[in-house]
Amino acid sequence: MDTSNTPPATATPPVEDGRVWKAGRLEPMPIRKLPDAPPSVHLLGPTVFLVALGVGMGESYMWPRLVLLFGPEIRWLFLVGVTLQAVVMLEMARYAMATGESIFTGAARVFKPLMWFFFIVAIAVYIWPGHLSAGAAALEQITGIPWMITAIAGLLLVGVVFTLAKVIYNLLENVLSLLIGALVLGTAIVAAMVGQWSDVVSTITGMFAIGYLPDEAMTAAWFPVIVGACAFAGPSGMQQMWYTLHLRDSGAGMGAHIPKVRGLRHAGEEEEMPNRGFMFDTEDPAEMAKWKGWRRWVTFDALLLFWGVTMLVTISFTVIAQSASRLNPGVREALLADDQEAALTAMSDAVSSAGSSVLGVVFLGFIALIGLNATLGLFDSFSRGQADMSFNFVPGAKKIGMSKLYAIFLWAVIAFGILILLFGPADGPASILDTLAFLSTFAMGAYCVTLLLVNNRMLPKPIRPRWWSNAIIGFGAVFYLGMLFYSMVAFGVVVG
Amino acid sequence: MITRHSLELALPGASIGAVAGAVAGGLTLFAGAPTGMAALSALALAVPLALFGGLYGVLLGHRVFRPGTFGPVGLYWMVAFPVSRLVQETLYGVGTADGVLPFLAYQAMVSLGFAIGFVWMHERLMPHWLIRRADDNPLAADLLAVYLRYARMIQARKGARK
């Protein structure tokens, strides 16, 4: 292992034995002990965030739409998308658990402008309140309260809650856990009531129709939509990068050596945030055994929670959409016209009118719940990511402190969101969501490249990714960027 | 006394099952189904789900299941959930259009999703209930010790923060 005995540039916190790991041009990481991995495979972890963020409009709207239009065979692309995201998740976790640093700091270790690129993309993509308005529109269908009022109230509520929270991570993990638990239980029950065996058979066999692309899919009208839907399979845009911040805050791996982010009201109690992560001794077999334990822990999370829940919700919503279109042909027409509100309403109506035990309101309730989950998760993650980058790389930002930076970004995005809702482009929620898709997809290709560079150049050899993992991430970069640019060159359209 | 101790452990699981069944039915009512029918249909799902949910808690207390592991719970609900749905459809449903076997097969698939949601919620609620009951109930105290052991490991990790 490439360690040296030069002490780190700053003396805080004190270094145990003076050894450091030099990675890139930034400050070297002191060598510390890796904590023990959780004793048993345990269900609750930071993956909650990724699931909350990932299960969004892609799963509840875009994919059911594609299935109704092109048939279930199109779902092989979903399988590819989500499986790719599970591997990305494992690789993001590798860097975050080994160093306690975010992937943004990792990117800065490779090449600082790379990190600034993500800083700017995050602002461009995530200040728009589109994700919120889709959920609020569903709530309007149920309660009759205009969606703008619910959306603004939701924004303020999120701000107040995160400002008052003592330790934000714990609060958010609890709230999101309950919401997701309710969503998963409810989706399962609704799907159990409205679906049939044949829907599932077609949905699942469709997943293995690898290579299937109908002629219509390769047109200027539809190819961009498919590219967008692939990018929205599972967590999209920068959500995977933010996951590294949640891992760190939950104390996973070397994240245990980094203090937590607090709400503004409790910012005064904040512990001093070190300006670089730590590394463990990868030549010590005992440390490597603990590392393997951490890898097992995160792999279980990736497979069962992330992959499993995402698949379940999408399959369920697809089944619901299929039964809805059987009952009401209007659903198919609304989907074809990409009228999201009309399609969701028609699906809900069809679900309600099916008679005995079927649940149109529940369906809309879930759309609202998904919107709420996404809002809670996105606002927190966005502020966390921007605060992390500002704290470490904007001169003078350290004086402000991590928790105050977090609050500044949080309230800025809330204020901007309210202004846009009131005075901004008011063409309705769906159009806002669509414009985000291009930058989102581009960022995903870019983070695959970043991951390859960071994990293969900034980590000690024994804990670098295996060749097959690199190959999958490399495929990811080609998949996202290739489809995006093919769409632009061949059809002159960005993603839809 | 032993029975009462066991039954106390059933409460969180039974509540999750009952609420999951009832909420679905209750909202059907909101959606405009005839009141009596919706209520009976909800009850017909809520009762079996509550029974199976409660049984899970009891079995957990007797160490048939281990806290926080998914595999066995998934298998458990793969049987319990289709049975519950069959009860509901038989009593107050529209009948099983495809025949009973495809119906059960479909429900068994969906049950895995239900199992994830169930165990997720159960892990959140059970420790709080155990803390309340541990003083009077030795079974609860034993099970709480398992959760505490895990919590201490986490605490030890966080305590190591500099």
Automatic annotation (TrEMBL), chain B:
Keywords: Membrane, Transmembrane, Transmembrane helix. The keyword Transmembrane applies. The chain crosses the membrane at residues 9-31, 37-58, 70-88, 100-121. This is Uncharacterized protein.
